[in-house]
Design goal:
five-stranded mixed beta sheet, binds adenosine-5'-diphosphate, about 260 residues, 6 helices, kinase, flat, two-stranded antiparallel sheet, alpha+beta, 9 strands
Length: about 260
């Protein structure tokens, strides 16, 4: 609580008493704390690749550049870290745009078959490279879903990207769609490395990663799932995950009526 006390004066400016005002600032404090934690997290996340880039550039300048094999190795690390920095900035911009437009989604009837087909096409080369079988099991007929096509594509991209990222070569990724009378559920199942039960409830938090080193290595930002959650909830839907030794399933459902 914030306490404010001011003197209460009469017509002749004589003191008549005091007025106390108690304001419940718990919620505001919580928001302020969340904001400053977020800024600290962002700074840390931006600093890590930069520190690594600077380190390798300095070593190159100090002489490592003379050895072509070392130089090539360092340059490829600098290249990868630069890309990760760009991904991070893109994801941060997406998050802030989403927060601004929360109530102003550009909703139209969306054909989810098209969204899923495009995602499968987009990831086919990566799946092939990694020897992962990527398939979609879609119903013949699908009613349109009221939503923002661009944002819903983003959710599909994030889930399929993760499924491929966290599945070892030779594994499988399967997209399924189920309808009921009033909602559609899309699930992306993989035969990947899985998520420990204690981490499962936290994977939708900003910057949460089960294995930071692994996620970084893969160019991850730790923001994909929190962006997806934002988008699905802005559509009035739900997103969740289950996982065991056999792999993980990420699902989301969307209402069919606005
Ligand atoms: P990242 O950019 O690190 O992939 P996300 O927000 O997309 O960030 O995911 C958060 C974390 O959840 C990941 O770092 C990873 O530890 C875990 N995760 C997400 N998807 C999967 C999956 N399909 N299989 C195993 N772990 C996953």
């Amino acid at each position: 609580f914030r306490v404010e006390i001011s003197p209460l004066k009469g017509n002749q400016e004589e003191k008549m008493g005091v007025v106390g005002l108690l304001t419940d600032v718990t919620e505001r404090r919580k928001l302020e704390r969340m904001r400053s934690e977020f800024v600290a997290n962002v700074s840390h996340e931006l600093r890590t690749p930069l520190t690594s880039i600077n380190g390798f550039v300095e070593t190159l300048l100090d002489g490592a550049v003379e050895d072509p094999a070392t130089a090539k190795n360092f340059l490829s690390i600098i290249n990868a870290e630069g890309k990760r920095l760009a991904n991070l900035i893109d994801d941060l911009l997406k998050l802030s745009r989403l927060e601004d437009r929360r109530s102003k989604l550009n909703k139209q009837p969306v054909d989810l078959t098209e969204v899923i087909d495009n995602t499968v096409k987009m990831f086919a080369p990566r799946a092939w490279e990694k020897n992962i079988e990527l398939t979609g099991e879609l119903p013949q007929e699908m009613p349109p879903v009221p939503g923002d096509q661009g944002f819903l594509s983003q959710v599909m991209i994030n889930l399929v990207d993760n499924a491929i990222k966290y599945t070892l070569p030779g594994g499988k990724v399967k997209i399924k769609v189920n309808f009921s009378r009033d909602e559609v559920t899309v699930s992306v199942a993989d035969t990947g490395i899985g998520i420990p039960p204690e981490s499962l409830p936290r994977v939708f938090e900003r910057f949460y990663r089960v294995d930071k080193a692994r996620s970084r290595e893969m160019g991850g930002t730790g923001l994909g799932l929190s962006i997806s959650k934002h988008i699905v909830e802005a559509h009035g839907g739900k997103i969740w995950a289950t996982s065991d030794e056999a792999g993980s399933i990420f699902s989301f459902s969307l209402p069919l009526q606005e």
